[in-house]
């Protein structure tokens, strides 16, 4: 058994895939989750897939006392991977205080509890949303961050600023912040995947739910953008590739020869696909036409986002290996076979 790692939000979409990758690489995992957007059944599924049941602590990270207590119990952990956060853009516009409170208090409490228990490494879930509407493609990590059009996006931008100030102030804790592009796909087992609560905000679950008959039709938000077919371009990345980026980040943090206070990496494939290309690719995988309609632009959407992957390749020694078909096929398999079991 290798080192112990605390994974907050380990029952969520990206968290659960990362936990499985960590277990396969013999890490001892402690999941902290409050099930606010996940389910206890994920623990059974992680066990079924990996053969190991991770330690589990049901904790609301907004409480420092509760966070401190669990970090104290697991003070032999070497690192924390902090996924736990609210992530629905539209909900954050409706309820900004809930987003600032949840996403920022939890980060502050995690950092303080790490400090008090000398758990000296952190991987933070950031987002390409910190780039706002970038002027240059592909986006490199040194592109300026911009105020987001949503409170959700701002919690990621502010969190990175907190991490910068925090790592500047002391030398013990080193941090890697991973800026995710657009995670889609599901584990090859078909046992875990994305499980959006309510109406999905994101494209891929909306597509699969439409094809499954849960939604009547996909609304395509605008076809008058300055892109090849007028619909916005995004860098979709397989969630298992994303999980593997966390493994690489962890290995880098635990290798003391490479430690630096704060490093930031894009996690994308470097390839951009438009909304219409995603629909066509989905239709090819599912074998039937998707019901969709072009409608108005969604406020806050930007025309084009895709990552420069050079830094992650050269420094993190990570690059995505799964293609668009793998991503879409696994999302579709997950939607068809298993999501109903988790209701
Ligand atoms: N999109 C769409 N209809 C939907 C959901 C998304 O046309 O129901 C488009 C959206 O305008 C964007 C792309 O799909 O261009 C990806 O959207 P998503 O919300 O998944 O990711 P983000 O906008 O955060 O990159």
N→C terminal distance: 34 Å
Continuous helix count:
11
H/E element sequence:
EHEHEHEHHEHEEHEEEHEEHEHH
Mean pLDDT: 95
Fraction of residues in H or I helices: 25-40%
Examine the coordinates and then state which fold CATH places here, giving the name of the CATH topology of the domain at 4-185 and 236-268.
Rossmann fold
Main sheet properties: 7 strands, parallel
Would you identify the CATH architecture of the domain at 4-185 and 236-268? 3-Layer(aba) Sandwich
Globular, elongated, flat, extended or rod-shaped: what is the shape? globular
Q: What's the CATH C level of the domain at 4-185 and 236-268?
A: Alpha Beta
The tally of beta strands, per DSSP, is 13
Class by SSE composition: alpha/beta
Oligomeric state of the chains?
A: single chain
For this entry, give a set of tags.
about 350 residues; alpha/beta; Rossmann fold; 7-stranded parallel beta sheet; two-stranded parallel sheet; binds uridine-5'-diphosphate
In short, what is this structure?
By secondary structure, the protein is an alpha/beta fold. Helices cover 40% and strands 17% of the residues.
Word description of this protein:
It is a single chain. The chain has 343 residues and is α/β, with parallel strands linked by helices. The protein has a domain at 4-185 and 236-268: NAD(P)-binding Rossmann-like Domain (Rossmann fold), CATH 3.40.50. Helix content is 40%, strand content 17%. The protein is built from 11 helices and 13 strands. The strands form 4 sheets. The chain has a 7-stranded parallel beta sheet, sandwiched between helices. Helix 1 runs parallel beside helix 2, helix 1 crosses helix 8 and helix 9 packs across helix 11. The two termini are 34 Å apart. It binds uridine-5'-diphosphate (UDP). The site of uridine-5'-diphosphate has 14 residues, from helix 7 and strand 8.
């Amino acid at each position: 058994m290798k080192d112990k790692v605390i994974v907050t939000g380990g029952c969520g979409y990206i968290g659960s895939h990362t936990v499985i990758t960590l277990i396969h690489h013999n890490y001892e995992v402690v999941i902290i989750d409050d099930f606010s957007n996940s389910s206890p059944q994920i623990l059974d599924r992680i066990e079924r897939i990996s053969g190991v049941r991770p330690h589990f602590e049901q904790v609301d990270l907004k409480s420092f006392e509760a966070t401190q207590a669990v970090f104290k119990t697991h003070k032999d952990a070497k690192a924390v991977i902090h996924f736990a956060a609210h992530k629905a853009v539209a909900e954050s516009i409706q309820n900004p205080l809930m987003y600032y409170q949840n996403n920022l208090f939890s980060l502050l409490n995690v950092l303080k509890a790490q400090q008090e228990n000398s758990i000296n490494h952190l991987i933070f879930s950031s987002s390409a949303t910190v780039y706002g509407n970038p002027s240059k493609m592909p986006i490199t990590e040194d592109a300026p961050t911009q105020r987001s059009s949503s409170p959700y996006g701002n919690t990621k931008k502010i969190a990175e600023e907190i991490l910068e100030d925090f790592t500047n102030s002391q030398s013990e804790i080193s941090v890697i912040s991973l800026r995710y592009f657009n995670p889609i796909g599901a584990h090859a087992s078909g046992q875990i995947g994305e499980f959006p609560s309510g109406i999905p905000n994101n494209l891929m679950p909306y597509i699969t739910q439409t094809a499954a008959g849960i939604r009547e039709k996909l609304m395509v938000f605008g076809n008058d953008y300055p892109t090849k077919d007028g619909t916005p371009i995004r860098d979709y990345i397989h969630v298992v590739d994303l999980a593997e980026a966390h493994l690489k980040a962890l290995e880098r943090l635990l290798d003391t020869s490479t430690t630096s206070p704060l490093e930031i990496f894009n996690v994308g494939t470097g390839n951009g696909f438009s909304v219409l290309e995603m629909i066509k690719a989905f239709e090819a995988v599912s074998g039937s036409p998707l019901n969709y309609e072009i409608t108005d632009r969604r406020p806050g959407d930007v025309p084009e986002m895709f990552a420069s992957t050079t830094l992650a390749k050269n420094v993190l020694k990570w690059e995505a290996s799964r293609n668009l078909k793998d991503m879409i096929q696994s999302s579709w398999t997950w939607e068809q076979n298993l999501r109903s079991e988790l209701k």
